[in-house]
Amino acid sequence: MILAVAILLICQLLGETLARGLGLPVPGPVLGMALLLLGCLMLPGMAARVMPTAQGLLSHLSLLFVPAGVGVISHLDVLGGSGPALLLVLVISTALALIAGVLTFVAVARLTGNADATEEPRG
Amino acid sequence: MTALPEIWSYLSREPLLWLTATLVAYLIGDQLSQRAGRNPLVNPVLVAMVLLGGLLWVTKTPYQTYFAGAQFVHFMLGPATVALALPLYVNRAQIRRALLPMVAALLAGSVTAIVSALWIARVLGIEGPVWLSLAPKSTTAPVAIGIAEQLGGLPTLTAALVILTGIIGAVIVTPLMRLMHIRDWRARGFAVGVAAHGIGTARAFQVNDTAGAFAGIGMGLNALLTAILAPYVVSLML
Prior knowledge:
The complex is a heterodimer.
Chain A: H1 2-22, H2 28-42, H3 46-59, H4 66-74, H5 83-111
Chain B: H1 4-11, H2 15-35, H3 44-58, H4 63-75, H5 77-83, H6 85-90, H7 92-97, H8 99-123, H9 128-133, H10 141-151, H11 155-179, H12 185-207, H13 209-237
């Protein structure tokens, strides 16, 4: 487990260094994700070592957003007088982005003979 | 024996109290979410946020004091983002086959997220730095804040808009997809990653592992694309 945590942190550290060093518009952890993927592809056994820790972290990904979320609740005044209008914008725009994304995915998957409807939705 | 107010004044200065409170609030949120059959309206982040926000308000605790304890949880966001490589690795064959649908959905979702937010906000009379802060709202917080600063938006407001977008996306994605009869987990996951970044991805993992893997890629790719697109779209709409 310590080894897995070390691997995750090393990838993040390399990602941050690369992002800052090269002035890339991508956050360090996202580059770190790409590096770890590369590592898993090149070194057999890496994925198996990191897997249990990664699964543990990802199964409670929601928890990690709580501190930032509390920040929003206790600083709701930053929304100012336009709070309700901003919320309306977010709801409509997020729904539209979801619809555009999912319909495009399904349409292109069908066009390229890649449709997948084997699993029944449950959630 | 020490008086209760003294114990409180000690504890309220230490990280232990608010770190514990964060975990307990999340456990309560997660339990409620499970009891509600993972009903999207009972989002564990939302429940924990409201509980802790109320607790801070009642005890008149400043957010800085709370964050001194909660930062240990917040810090884990970085390693967790790196850990998203594992579901990518496990699903690599499926992802390689879905490359074209992913690129197309990324473009459609990302452009829709930016343009629709700016356009609706303008119709509602939102202008200036507040309007600019909306442009990167669908992308992950660190990238969004960087983009907002570059455009002349307000970083704190952007952070709030990003978190709210994530929660809205996580709450509406399941009912919306059911309404549209979309059964492809890859499409559902990818779309929510693009539109609602990490909080949407967390919801996707709750529902289906394939959806979670695709959400993680959607989030990562949209961080990159929004950084490139947002300044361009804003300059077209100014």
